[in-house]
Every structure is written in C-alpha cells, then in structure tokens.
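Let us begin with a simple case.
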Amino acid sequence: MTASTVAARRPPLVRSTPILGPIRPFLGDVLPFLTEMRATYGDAFRLRMVNLELTCLLGPDAIALLQADSGLRTGTAMHVLNEEMHSLLPSMIDGPNRKAIRKSHHQFMTHSLESTRRVDIQRWLDDHTSRWEPGARLDVLSEAQTQTVDVLSRLLNGEPFPFTKRELGLVVHTMIWATFGHAPRLVLRNPAYRSVQRRMRAHLLDLVAAIRSDPKRVASTLVGHYLTFPPPPELGEWTDSDLVSVPYGAYLAGFDTVASAASFLLYRLLSNPEALARVRDEHDALSDDATGPVDPASQKYLRAAFLETVRLNPPGSTVLRFAERDIEFGGYTVRKGDEVLIVIAGDHLNAELFPDPRRFDPDRFLQPGVADLKRRVLPFGSGIHRCTGSTIGELIAVEMVSNWVNSFDLELDLGRRGLRTTARPFTQPSGLRVRVVARR
C-alpha cells in the first residue's frame, strides 16, 4: 500500500444501529460516548445518524486544526441568521472582517467591565434572589438563565432584560436549530416564534436608535463600542438594522452556556460538602479585606471548582465545522464538504491527564505547573471562533454561584428521577432543583 493510498483513506465508520445510528448519546451527555469511541477507533472516526454523516476529530491535532483558521468554516447556513436578524453581521463571522469584529468584543467584555460594575452586579443578583425564602423549591437552570441574561443585558445593552425566559428560549433555540442543527426551515414559520421574533427585533431596533442618540449609552454599551470602530467595507456604514445583531448576541451568548455551567457548578458544590465549605471559607477570608463585593477573579478555589465542573460537564463538548478543502488528519483524509465535529472536550476524561477522571477534584487546578492542564479544558471553544464573551461569562457564572452559596443554605431536591443531562443543543442539567433551607 503506497503512502498516497494511506493518505486517501477516510476515517473508520463507527458500527451502530442502522438508520438511527448512535443518536441517543447526542441527546444527553455525549462526552463519555465520544471518549469511548476514541479509545476504540483513535482520534478520527465517522458517525452516521439518520441522513447525517459526521467526521469526528479529537486530540491536540484536532484543536490545532481548529485554531489554525485554515480549511474549516463555521457553517453553510449563516444566511439564516442574516435573514432572521435582518443583519449582515452574523455571516461575517467567517469573513475577512472577523478579526476586527472579535476585537471589538474582546476590548469591551473584559474583567475591567465586571470590576467597574461589580456593585451593580451584586445588586442585580440580590434583586433576583430577594424572593428566595426558606422552603422555596427552585429550578436551578431556570434561575441561572433568568439571572444570566438579565445581568448580561444590563451590562452589555444598558437595560434590564425586556422579555421572558420562555420567549428568549423559543427564539434562541429556533435560530440555532435552523442554522446549525439540520432542522428544516419550516421551524422558522412557527407562529409563536414569528410573533416573539417580530417583537424582539422591533424592540432592539428602538434600543439601537436610543443608544446611537445618547453619548452616555454609546460609551457604556456594546452597540456603542461598535460605533467607535469603522464599519466593514461590505456595510459601508453602521445601520441600525445591522447593529440589531449585537444586542441579540448578549442574549444568545449566555442563555445556555453560562447558565448551564453555573447550574452544574452549584450541583457539584452541593454534592461535595467539603468543597462547598472551602468556597465559603475562601469568600469569608476575602470579605474581611474587601471594601466592597468580593472580586470573583480572586476566588481561586471557586474558579478551580468552575474549571473542574466544565471539565466534567462542558456546556458544549463539540463544535461543528465544514471542510473547505481536503484535509489530511492522522493518516486519513477529511474530504472537502464533510461535516466535521471537533471534540473540544476530547481530553476532559483523559485519565493520563486527569487521574480518576470522573471524580470532582478542584485541587487538580491549584497545583504548581498546571497551566498546560488548564489549557486542555475548553468550555467556550478554541481558536479564532472561541466565544468572545468567555472572560465575562466565567466571571458572571462564578459571581452568581458565589452569591447563591454565600447568601443561602441550599440542599439538593432532585426528586425520584434524579439529575439528568440533556442537549438542547448545549448540554444542560434536567431535574436539578434545590430547596432553600435558610438565609445565611
């Protein structure tokens, strides 16, 4: 067999149930399944589910390919977001202007933004938890989603979140499934979705116009930050219609990912009393020296617990890409046009990196020389398409959970079915409820 013949081989096809294929793991926590397939087939393999074929790539070479910004594109249906938002900005995520657009996000959504608004953030969180009375039974994911989008809306858009969580969920998930999830375009005709989407867009058009006309809001919002950058040549100018996608992003960014991470973090702490005690002791010690709310970045043990949580329960284990050309990977050929699933969490359960990988152990990330280990945990993607809100997202998640566990005694109330993991499409806890025991 010649080298060229070997290079032309496609990755092996995973044996599975005819027609449906291994669809069930993808409806919940898919990471254990993908880890098992890697042990059997190596760092490259193919999956067939219904009429879909995915080429799965794992390991450092897969992450390097994702980071290289060469040969892969985000999607083939970004025009769906363009049409639904009436904005050209979504499709520019793959265009020549992406670096400038991402730069505007990175410059605004920083630790500095959190630190300057920390007192406000604590007040907003306290407003949400003011109704948490002893005996109350709370849906953790619902609480996390509501608080996350409200804090992000206030921070990035300069207004309280103006819709219900249910309405936002309908819009976000419909758009995601229509763009990335192989759902038929018919889902966009859902009357309930269309009604909410029209109201949401009308409100955001008014918001953009109000920001543009107010210098103070220009200086304090993400839309205003965009206005300080020259528009892409394709746009010529920043129109209100194009800028509508910016406040949309504040809602889409954290609704599933940040809220899911915060929910699982609370579950892990309540399931591990020693870890919870250390989080509280750390917060108490920092509070003694603080002149205001504790800096979430200084809560080293809680941040290690966050990292350990997203290692075990990443909001997204994979990212979907499309091959723009033939790509050689590990002795196999990924063909132009193939749908490629980069498993960014591929090393999260690697026993060589994380001994006893299923055990919750935040101390893994508090030992000397763990910088490389931390880089193996990728909860918000990797490369040029890594979530631009990852810094502020982690800080908000840590701040929110810190507020909960240091203000309340909570106990798990999982019910008969216990905790389940679902994918909608990001990994989320289902059935995660807590009971408020007392205020602290």
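The second case is a distinct protein. As before, the sequence precedes its structure tokens.
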Amino acid sequence: MSEPTLALLHGDRNGIGPEIMARLLAEGCQGAQLVCLGDPQVFAEGQAVAGCAVDIASLATLEALPAATTEPGQATSASGSEMLAALERAVELARSGRIDGIVFAPLNKQALHLGGLAHEDEGRLLAQLFGAERVGEINVLEELWTARVTSHVALKDVAGLIDTASILDTIVFIDEALKAAGVARPRLAVAALNPHAGDGGNFGREEIEVIAPAVERARARDIEASGPLPADTVFVRARSGQFDAVVTMFHDQGQIAMKLIGFERGVTLIGGLPVPVTTPAHGTAYDIVGQGRANPAALIEAFDLCRRMATASRESEA
C-alpha cells in the first residue's frame, strides 16, 4: 500500500513554528508523502534559524499561499489571516482526497482572532469546514491520552456544566479515537471532580449523582471504563500503564499532569474529524523566537501520530 499524504503547515510565522518545522523536515519525515502549505520564504527563514539546510523540493510538494509580513514575537492580524488561509486550504485538500492528514506547527489564538476567526478556536473552525458534528481536543503523550468534558471555560462554572450525558459523550469520543489509532480495547479512567472523589459525598455529590452513572452507561456499551477515580492519583496509575486514557472534568485537571510528565513531547489531536489533525501541545513561544532554542520533539511526535493514524485509516479502507 502507498504511503499516506500529509499536509505540513508552518504555523504562526511570528512564533517558533517555522524553525521546528525545519527540524522536522530535516528528520526526513519517513513513511509519508508531504505537501507543505504556506509561504516558501517562511520555510526558508525557519531553516536559517534552526541551522539546517533542507531541500524541500526533494521531500515535498510545496504549495505557496499568500504571504504576510513577519513580526517576530508578535500576534498580528496578518499572521492570523495567513494561518486561517492555510487551514482552509488544508481542509480543501483533505475533502478532495488529496491528503490523508494535517500537521500544523503552533498557532496563536489571539492572532487567529485578529485575523478574522469567528470561532472559539481552530478546532471549531475545522469542525465547520469539515462538516463534523462533534470535535474535541485530545492530548497525547506517547501512549497516554486525555480528553476533557469541559474545556475553555471559567473554573467556577465547571460543576454546573458537567452532566452524565456530556461525560458519557466524552468517554465514547476518546474510546472511538483510540480505536481509530489502533488500540483494540482502550482502558479508560474517568477522573473525579472533587477532592478524594468526593469522599462518599462529604465534599460534593457530583461523583455519585453525575460521574458514576456515566461510567456505568459506558460499561453497558462494552467500553472498559473505570471511575470516578481521585484526580490526584489517577495519572500516577495511568502513567504506570494501568490505563490508556484519562477523561478529566476540566482543562487544567489533565493539562497540568500531562505537561509535567512531558511538556516537550505532548501532542494535541483534534478528534472527531474525517482525517487526523495534529499539532504540538505547546504554543508559539514568542519569547524564544529566533534564538535557535526551540525543541522540535512535540512536532516530531505530532507528525508520527498523524502518520500512524492516516496509515491505519488507509489500511482499514483497503
């Protein structure tokens, strides 16, 4: 079977994206055909900062998009609109069957909104462009995955936003994503909301009245889910290999743990789309732009995950 074709986007030109993309390309990107979308000059500038010379023409098809002005370390409307155009073009290629996955270097949400993004984030934009009903961020650190029931909301609102249906939806969502990545029977841990998993109702009743019923319904669907488990130890157990994924109730409940375990290797997978879309879990790092210090490990991991998922998808359709 032929290799999958992946689109590579250099991300925010004013951040570290171009230099870590240069280092990814220098690795060779084995196992996939490549289409590089963006400004050729940005790809070249990234190589200069990273200190590596890459003959992109020998590795990939380069499709130039309208260029912006570079302002290192700044979130600008020009860079935002450039990023939006690249995402829109990548979706066009995916929907036409010309690519099997998308990997983009870090974007900046402020720049995206300055550039015209009308959605909460790029995930919601991609959902609209693909016509997908349910999308969500999944954080991946090697073999450990996490998904969250609530995301970019105020912490004070979390308890009122979680319910049995939304928790069950998140459990099913990450179970399906793991199966798409080749995990035959995912082992899922569901984190509690309150300290000590509520201590039998002494510290809150969400575990008893909301979370446990969702876990029971997941099990009734033959999903291997456990919980609610105390949030302060669930990642210890997951990291030891007891679980493939953790479902958390709110953003930082999972993000702090994952970034502490492996900040420079974490990947964000935008799940629920017809093709895998991955990016580093870290941001644009405006404070170190142009210094040659940016670590490409997370982008390399993002590429590898996208390649593996795209390959598995092609094999399942053969």
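The two ends are 9 Å apart (CA to CA). The mean pLDDT is 95.
Keep these points in mind for the review questions at the end of the chapter.
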